[in-house]
Amino acid sequence: GLRDFEDLYPVQLSGGMQKRVALARALALDPEIVFFDEPTSGLDPIMAAVITKLIADLNRLLGITCIVVTHAVDEAMRIADKIVVLYMGKVLAQGTPQEIRQSSDPLVQQFITGSPDGPISFRASSKDYRDDLLVR
Question: Is the dihedral of CA 79, 80, 83, 88 positive or negative?
């Protein structure tokens, strides 16, 4: 999807174009495995879908194993064969997208639904921050 842009400098490329160029550079080495770290972060929904489809196509058409670290749960659920949910540095759940969706673990459910209410709390501290700042 980058034809007609080959004369542009990197600074002239959009975020989505930069991600596709980076992927093309990685694929030039003919890897068996490609790691992606938040591949859709900072992209608009359309470009995020383009990148997600590109990752799925790499796996399906070229047989490349793609390992994607992401917080984009919906995208991961659409393209993954296996999902691993991490929490506090530990594996919380692993399985197919369907198995993850059906998990009875409240932590898993809160994460995949994005609910602000659940076992993962975002309460403010009970201490006043000034007490911490003024402690000698």
Answer: negative
Q: How far apart are CA 119 and CA 117, in angstroms?
A: 7
Give the whole-angstrom CA distance, residue 107 versus residue 116: 11
The first and second tokens of residue 114, run together, are: 């994005």
Q: From the CB of residue 86, how many other CB atoms can be counted at a distance below 10 Å? A: 12
pLDDT tens figures, 50-103: 889 989 998 899 999 999 999 999 999 999 999 999 999 999 999 999 999 999
In angstroms, rounded to a whole number, what is the distance separating the alpha carbons of residues 54 and 84? Answer: 21
pTM: 0.75
CB contact set of 67 (below 8 Å; sequence gap of 6+): 33, 34, 35, 36
